[in-house]
Each structure stands twice: as structure tokens, then as C-alpha cells.
Amino acid sequence: MNNKTLFLIAGIITALVFIGYLSETEPHNMFGYTINIWIVRLAWLIIAVSNFANYFKLKKAEKK
Questions:
Q1: How many domains are there within the chain?
Q2: C-alpha to C-alpha distances, 37 to 1, 19, 31, 55, 56, nearest whole angstrom
Q3: What is the pTM of this model?
Q4: Which of 10, 18, 39, 62 could form a disulfide with 51 if both were Cys (CB 3.0 to 4.6 A apart)?
Q5: 18-28 confidence digits (pLDDT tens)
Q6: Helix crossing, 37-63 with 3-21: angle to 10°?
């Protein structure tokens, strides 16, 4: 399994986690701190988008 495949798998998993957090309405507790749910959603969205961007960048470089 190469990096391209890992980025695709990570992107899919983090996108699913992001979608799962869309139904949450309560603040999220992390390490004993209460965090606004929108910040948690934004963090998972950024992680998912960056994984997909890396996947497409590697896929494009592979074609050349």
C-alpha cells in the first residue's frame, strides 16, 4: 500500500467522522475542556480536505 492509497483511506475516514459530527448539537469535551462543536467540525473538515488534496496531488504527479 502506498502513500496515495493511505491518503485516500484517511480522507474517506475523516470525511465520515466530519459527517458524523454534523448531527451533534452539544459542545464537545476534549482533554477536560469544552470545545465548541463548530471548531471540532472545522478541524475534521480541514483534515479531510487536506487528505483528499494530497491524494489528488500524488495521483496527478503519478500520471506525468
A1: 1
A2: 34, 13, 15, 27, 29
A3: 0.85
A4: 10
A5: 999 999 888 98
A6: 160
